[in-house]
Design goal:
This protein is of the alpha/beta class. It contains four helices and ten strands; from the N terminus they run αααββββββββββα.
């Protein structure tokens, strides 16, 4: 069996147990003697790396290690926006994070995505709001989902379609709006441009 590129990766108890099971099967099939089984099992249980385990199975046909787990990158933390009794405005070619955490108290907030640098087709906004006005402006053709918003003595209004469209921005908002307002709309004039054949 060829040496693998992952030979130096550490192994877990589950990996050692898996190889011990393969050795038991090999002994049952007569591929190794009972003495070899005992010796190889001891080596497997003492193994520290995948290379150690691979060596135990090297001359046994059709017996291989399970694939090493894929190392997944951790999702980046949400970009935090917020304030008290202030105005928060993002317009123009600002860079948008995949997830925005919006924490506002008595604020006026406008997030305009029409000229923004977007991370992908879907953006998530997690809102924690009290006594504030929040407006999200999305490009023509973009959609939004406010089903995850809990409005307590406040309002959450979506003035765009909510069904995701191919190759269009989709904004998903969830969280709480207390004694405040949240709205998602297209830029002013979008409807008139559509009437005149524009986009």
């Amino acid at each position: 069996m060829d040496s693998g590129q992952d030979d130096n990766l550490r192994v877990s108890n589950a990996d050692r147990t898996y190889v011990s099971g393969l050795l038991e099967r090999a002994a049952g099939d007569g591929l190794i003697t009972l003495d070899e089984f005992a010796e190889r099992t001891d080596r497997a249980l003492a193994a520290r790396t995948r290379g150690d385990l691979r060596a135990v199975l090297a001359d046994l046909p059709d017996m291989q290690l399970r694939a090493a787990p894929v190392q997944r990158r951790a999702a980046p933390p949400p970009a935090a926006l917020g304030g008290w009794m202030t105005s928060i405005v993002r317009r123009g070619p600002w860079t948008v994070a995949p997830v925005i955490s919006l924490n506002t108290r008595m604020c006026s907030t406008t997030l305009d995505f029409t000229s923004a640098v977007l991370p992908g087709p879907v953006i998530e906004v997690i809102i924690d709001d009290y006594l504030s006005s929040t407006e999200l402006i999305v490009p023509a053709g973009a959609t939004a989902d406010l089903n995850g918003v809990d409005a307590i003595a406040g309002s959450a209004t979506v003035k765009v379609r909510n069904l995701l469209q191919p190759e269009q921005l989709h904004v998903v908002v969830r969280g709480k709006v207390r004694l405040g307002s949240l709205s998602v709309r297209h830029p002013f004039g979008t409807f008139l441009r559509r009437l005149h054949g524009g986009r």
